[in-house]
From TrEMBL:
The keyword Hydrolase applies. It holds the Pfam family Glyco_hydro_1. It comes from the Bacteria. It catalyses: Hydrolysis of terminal, non-reducing beta-D-glucosyl residues with release of beta-D-glucose. PROSITE patterns: GLYCOSYL_HYDROL_F1_2 (PS00653). The keyword Metal-binding does not apply. Keywords: Carbohydrate metabolism, Cellulose degradation, Glycosidase, Hydrolase, Polysaccharide degradation. PANTHER family: GLYCOSYL HYDROLASE, LP05116P. InterPro entries: GH, GH_1_N_CS, Glyco_hydro_1, Glyco_hydro_1_beta-glucosidase. This is Beta-glucosidase.
Length: 462
């Protein structure tokens, strides 16, 4: 068996774990929290596997001290969490819910006391339901509300948060929420989805401005994108690759980093929308200087050109891609059916670095779901997750060695949680959560990761 040498990371590399509010907190109707689109969606029969909801989730809201203890024992330098917008501003209006805010204040203070840097995501998909009722992300006003929310959080927590992330994976919010409808709010309206893309970009830019105006320097501001590493089956598929790259990546990178939507995106989607929702200075507003680009990576994408248009299938997130076929990739696969291919991560990081050498990168999510079992002796032997993490961290080290400026890595996830439309069936945690008792048990991967963090080195697997 070929051996992989141990890989050492830079001294100041930031090691972390990540979660998101709706996936872990529970306490959905407590202390003045308002409903989000995920409460409505998960309570709608047929939307989430097994009818699971985030009502209780991991009960992190009530088990904060215990979970802070786990983070401290893991020894991570940072923890990425998200703030539930309807918990702090119920209804999405301007009335601050002190009890909701107090939870995040205690979380941030608890992290700082333990030497863990708080990395706060403002929007990890839980839009206040009232804002969806008023039109949701396809509606311009949502971006303005988002900016107000960012402003309030910057004022309240900006003296203590280490890094702010405006949006998590706006690709999912726009295309899964409004085109394919497999995520909340479950709409299937391609034109609305493209309007959502734009208002997310606009909201991001306005939120960066609000955070810069309120948070104490040196607050870092970033956005997290699930950038797709797209490959073609053959060279003849270059146009298919370009189309998917435009929708998936450049629809966000363009306005956020270059201040303009790519021409080919506008042209490819011309039959769906005329993009009239883009007002004169919007692209400039979306384009704010960032301290970091957050990258979430799970698996690459493989496409090829299809001969002729397809017949109408189920609603797709891939707007105007009827002539593109998404090809199933060779295994092995995770429990999500996602191919395990860490080479895509190295290639993606090098592309991003090559395109914008001065913008530091951070892996804000990477991890895998497997069918973990809690053995009778109290251990979870998740060697496949250890292998996945080792491969992907080695891929990050390869990118760093080749010149990419990667500042940190966050495992998705700290603990098993509510995996959106899949409910609790998919376990991504390095800590196992018993669905009956909600007891937490360290998986083997958590022990392994603690050692990686302690030594700053990914060990040789032998
Ligand atoms: C990402 C999400 C995160 C989690 C992982 C598996 O798309 O940001 O909340 O569900 O996938």
């Amino acid at each position: 068996m070929p051996t992989t040498p141990a890989r050492a990371f830079p001294e100041d590399f930031l090691w972390g774990t990540a979660t998101a509010a709706y996936q872990v907190e529970g306490a959905a109707a407590e202390d003045g929290r308002g409903p989000s689109i995920w409460d409505t969606f998960s309570h709608t029969p047929g939307r989430v596997d097994h009818g699971d909801t985030g009502d209780v989730a991991c009960d992190h809201y009530h088990r904060l001290e215990e979970d802070l203890g786990i983070l401290a024992r893991l020894g991570v330098g940072a923890y990425r969490f998200s703030i539930s917008w309807p918990r702090v501003l119920p209804g999405g209006g301007d009335r601050l819910n002190r009890r909701g805010l107090d939870f995040y204040s205690r979380l941030v203070d608890g992290l700082l006391e333990r030497g863990v840097a708080p990395v706060a995501t403002l929007y990890h998909w839980d839009l206040p339901q009232e804002l969806e009722d008023a039109g949701g992300w396809p509606h311009r006003d949502t971006a303005l509300r988002f900016a107000e929310y960012a402003h309030r959080m910057g004022e309240a927590l900006g003296d203590r948060v280490h890094t702010w992330i405006t949006l998590n994976e706006p690709w999912c919010s726009a295309y899964l929420g409004y085109a394919s409808g497999v995520h909340a709010p479950g709409r299937t309206d391609p034109a609305g989805a493209l309007a959502a893309v734009h208002h997310l970009n606009l909201g991001h830019g306005l939120a960066v401005q609000a955070l810069r105006a309120t948070a104490a320097p040196p607050a870092r501001v970033a956005v997290t994108l699930n950038l797709h590493h797209v490959r073609g089956v053959s060279e003849r598929d270059a146009e298919a690759v370009r189309r998917v790259d435009a929708l998936a990546n450049r629809a966000f990178l363009g306005p956020m980093l270059d201040g303009a939507y790519p021409r080919d995106l506008i042209e490819a989607t011309a039959s769906v929308t005329d993009w009239a929702f883009v007002h004169d200075s919007d692209e400039a507003t979306a384009c704010q200087a960032l301290d970091l680009l957050g990258v979430n990576y799970y698996s690459p994408v493989l496409v090829r050109a299809r001969d002729g248009e397809t017949a109408d299938g189920p609603a797709s997130p891939w707007i105007a891609c009827g002539d593109v076929e998404f090809v199933r990739q060779p295994g092995p696969y995770t429990e999500m059916g996602w191919s395990i291919d860490e080479t895509g991560l190295t290639e993606l990081l090098l592309r991003l670095h090559g395109d914008r050498p001065s913008l530091p990168l951070m892996i804000t999510e990477n991890g895998a779901a497997f069918a973990d079992v809690l053995d009778g002796d109290g251990r979870v032997r998740d060697e496949r997750r250890v292998d996945y993490l080792r491969r992907h961290l080695t891929a990050v080290a390869d990118a760093i060695d080749a010149g990419a400026d990667v500042r940190g890595y966050f495992v998705w996830s700290l603990m098993d949680n509510f995996e959106w439309a899949h409910g609790y069936a998919k376990r991504f945690g390095i800590v196992y959560v018993d669905r009956e008792t909600l007891d937490r048990t360290w998986k083997d991967s958590a022990h392994w990761y603690r050692d990686v963090v302690a030594t700053g080195t990914v060990p040789d697997p032998s």
